[in-house]
Design the sequence.
């Protein structure tokens, strides 16, 4: 039992209503399919999710807020970049990015229960490094701050047009001294304090949502689990839930997220349990065939055969998400997204603009399924 003086205060009474509105708004743009449910949130609960999209860290915490008892606080661990200007610009449409230059949502996110964690300790956007200097020294000229120099001042980095859609990562070495040394010296104490705050929230009875990989997966496979996980697992006292997530981008016009909420098959091997629990989607099955066979033309019959053969090859224990669209509907989606010409000829396009990372969507979907199947076989040994 957590000591009374260590318990967190109850969540605000208005939070569930806000969560309902936010979830409804999210579902207006993205289809979210949820299979399973979270247990009652009496006492500490640790929710662990794989990380493929920003939607992961929005939808699952909202579902947690709406799970009784709703006054139990929810803390979602988010990137330190969310608490700095410059992150949202590349993710917002141009109209909003221009209207909200340098927007820093950190204060509002803290009120909603988001806790920051540095997930890019070695290489992060230049805007992040510049913001660290800005907080200590104000709006200095860039020629004094950056090793490469540059016109303007630090705050100009956040002006629309200066931030690329996928900004290249920078390192502390891109700063001049003494700013480089200050950033290096501040890193470890900041990360330690952030991890301690997350651990204290869980020990204090909160529901804590974490993506242990720390960053969005770029190739479909799980990234290594960060050090925060080993600190949190003992504090959860066995109350661990997985949010195993897959996206089904090739089935419908609307971006589709499929979530399974369940306990880990092996609490001592979270990575394998999480990989094995991820839904198998029609997009994954089709992508395996597209990557392996590289057809020049895709037909409804070819899609149907790929789905049928893919399901037949799955290992025992695989959970297949319902496939609501006929093969002809999937072909129409491939055409709409530019992967196929109207006659079914493959165009060579491989990137999904709805994803943050500039990756090969077919290769990523196929790699995810391969990793899921390998994890299922390991659990059966």
Sequence:
């Amino acid at each position: 039992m957590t000591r009374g003086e260590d318990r967190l205060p109850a969540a605000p009474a208005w939070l569930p209503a806000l969560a309902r509105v936010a979830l409804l708004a999210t579902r207006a743009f993205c289809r979210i399919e949820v299979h399973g449910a979270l247990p009652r949130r009496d006492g500490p609960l640790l929710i662990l999710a794989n990380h493929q999209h920003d939607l992961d860290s929005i939808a699952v915490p909202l579902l947690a807020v709406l799970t009784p008892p709703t006054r139990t606080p929810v803390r979602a661990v988010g990137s330190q970049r969310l608490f700095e200007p410059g992150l949202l610009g590349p993710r917002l449409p141009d109209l909003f990015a221009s209207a909200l230059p340098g927007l820093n949502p950190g204060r509002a996110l803290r009120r909603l229960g988001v806790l920051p964690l540095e997930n890019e300790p070695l290489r992060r956007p230049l805007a992040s490094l510049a913001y660290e200097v800005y907080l200590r020294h104000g709006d200095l000229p860039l020629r004094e701050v950056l090793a490469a120099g540059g016109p303007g001042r630090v705050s100009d980095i956040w002006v629309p047009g200066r931030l690329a859609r996928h900004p290249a990562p920078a390192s502390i070495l891109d700063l001049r001294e003494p700013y480089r040394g200050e950033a290096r010296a501040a890193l470890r104490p900041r990360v330690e304090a952030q991890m301690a705050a997350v651990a204290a929230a869980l020990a204090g009875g909160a529901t804590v949502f974490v993506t242990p990989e720390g960053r969005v997966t770029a190739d479909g496979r799980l990234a290594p689990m960060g050090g925060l996980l080993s600190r949190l697992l003992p504090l959860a006292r066995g109350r661990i839930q997985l949010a195993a997530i897959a996206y089904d981008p090739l089935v419908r016009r609307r971006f589709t997220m499929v979530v399974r909420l369940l306990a880990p098959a092996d609490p001592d091997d979270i990575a394998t349990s999480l990989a094995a629990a991820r839904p198998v989607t029609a997009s994954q099955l089709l992508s395996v065939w597209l990557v392996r066979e590289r057809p020049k033309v895709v037909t409804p019959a070819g899609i149907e055969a790929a789905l049928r053969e893919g399901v037949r090859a799955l290992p025992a224990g695989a959970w297949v998400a319902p496939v609501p669209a006929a093969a002809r509907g999937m072909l129409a989606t491939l055409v709409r997204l530019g992967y196929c010409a109207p006659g079914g000829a493959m165009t060579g396009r491989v990137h999904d603009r709805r994803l943050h990372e500039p990756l090969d969507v077919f290769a990523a979907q196929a790699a995810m399924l391969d990793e899921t199947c390998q994890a299922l076989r390991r659990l059966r040994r």
